[in-house]
Amino acid sequence: MDHGPSTSWGKDRASGYKTRLGLRMFAIYAVVYAAFVIVNAVRPEWMATRVGQLNLATAYGFGLIIFALILALIYNGLSGRAEAQYAAMFEDEITSAEDEE
Amino acid sequence: MNYQTSTWAIAIFLFFIGLVLWIAFYFARRTRTAQGYFAAGGRIHWSVNGIAFAGDYLSAASFLGICGLIATAGYDGFLYSIGYLAGWIVALFVVAEPMKRLGRYTFTDALDARFNSRAIQLTAAISTLVVSLFYLIPQMVGAGVLITPLFGLPHYVGVILVGTTVIIIVATAGMTSTTYVQFLKGGLLIVFSLILTVSVLTRGLSTSPDHGGEVPYHQFVTIPYQERDDGTLVLENSDYSVPADWKTSPYYGRADGTLHFVKLTRGDETSVWRINPERGVLEETQTVMTLPDGTKLYNGAPASQGKFYAVGHMSEIIMDGKSVERTGDLDPTAFLGVILDSTVVTWGSEKITDGDAKVTIYYQKPVAGSDLLRPGLKFKVGKSGWDNLNFISLMLALFLGTAALPHILIRYYTVPSPAAARKSTIVAIAAIGFFYVLTLFMGLGAMTGGVLDLTDSNMAAPLLAKSFGVFLFACISAIAFATVLGTVSGLIVAASGAVAHDLADRFLGLKLTDWRKVLAGKLAAVVVGVIAMVLGIIYQGMNVSYLVGWAFAVAASANLPAIVMLLFWRRTTAQGVAAAIVMGIISSVGLILLSPEMYRELYGLDPHLAIVPIDSPAVFSVPLGFLTLIVVSLLTQRKQTAG
After folding, report:
1. pTM score of the predicted model
2. Of B25, B140, B309, B363, which is the most exposed, with the fewest CB atoms less than 10 Å away?
3. Domain holding B526: CATH number?
């Protein structure tokens, strides 16, 4: 078949972990985003509530943008660590197999 | 408004075009293979790809459209920024790494990785072409809109200039040159938007914004009046005369009694005033009159006479509990805090017919800052169920559409690994999120800075830049043009991949050799580019910004169910994927064609007659896409088992 990855790379043994992690983080953000959308739609007057110098509308809006970046950085950190751990485990397995031979 | 051609703008624009073409020819010699042409050889560094993502994504709709929308509708414009950014969460957590693992050149590859199905190849390629075309048309029209005021050239010249440049970029080095053009444009856009935002905050807010003392702000005046029992209107200023039939004239306005105007005469001049019975005054308005021969008069005179004023000011500024005329420099939160406590003059419009002429009257609408910075000026939220559902549907389309846009998805094939795909998405989130925060300050800066052209809100950001000097204006204008160039390049690469790789090579089974596939891609890029130019010229003058909304809705409805279910539901079948794509396209486009916005914009009919009560279809069409995939997959499995 004439498809498949455009480049080759090592086996990604952490892909299962990253998928589960990604889905959990997606669910967290989706809940926070859905709450924002629903409040804007159904109770827009709540968005006028003052939060320091800002109001809830701008604070929540900026918060969603910043929250996205924070989650993304956490996801990258945990994914990178998992990739390194799986890579180290796999290297150990190879080393053990070579020793046995 | 009367725009004057800037030599600086032309010089910087030409320099940028030259730089872009140099990049294209520089990378052309490296592009020999299909992998090089469609996926930049998979060798782009994740940090470069991340900024290039921003370049792809921050189209004319984002830069010009959102700034303009915030400048006219306040917080409701910023909601687009939030929705567009939130969409990247879906891209990062759900599709980034799997798309990289499964695909090769196009998103069809990823969908088809498990099946090798001709139905998927055909439907996914059609979906790519439909979404790309909806996205392309407003970009090309935007190119013409920009070129006319900035360089004094006709609309079609802008379209041809962008089309030709993009064809050269794409046909020479494909995804490699496109990536570096996007990188350059994305980076410059963010840097200059930051400069513009800092300039806005440093200047602060004023009740008579005068561009730093350079341009006196036109003070819109009022005339106290009394309406006598005999129906005559008596003005305090006797220079003006009132026609006897003022109450039966077409200017008097709405039958519902909410908005009335009167046409006054002073010497040879006529002017239109809004009657404000609450304050007992007539308020100065601005008018654009279109005569039967197409001639336009701005406040009763040709545009060249400069009688149509730039607008945007605060009628009252409250700072630290005191009323002031000027704030001085402000930090970002203080800037928003002062606006929240103060009153901003926004502008409404009313269309009437005066004999054979059509007149648009622009009138002042002071709005409390606390109302401006909460939802409600554009979206009629919190009132009826359908209006609320329309808003929810739009925000759903923005959230789900991003991760299903073909020209965004193909960028995952330009990096060397799934980890690099993930990291480039995070760079994109940081860059795009930062830009979208800046849009609020640029939009509000334009709204209060005395720079707005009432006839074209898309020019808010460039005109705001102009108020800080010609150099910044020239840079922002060149970048705005590059914004169109970059996005169109990405779209044409996606479309050319769909034609050459998905349709010609795989669906039709032409078994192209590597270099023939590159040749087919280049030919497809030229053809798609020419089609885009023709459409850009045909659609001149039409407000086609809603087509970007179509693109998001179709992508969310047709592509996302297929991508998500393929990744997370093992029983997904090829027939299910193909059926979901077809259903997503038909349902989303069909619902849009029957929506109130289409009745108003496209058919010129009363929007209340629309069969579908909401403009954004995602809330119906996305679940329909998922449902179709599930039902068809289950049915086709039963057939396979029985067989």
Report:
1. 0.90
2. B25
3. 1.20.1730.10
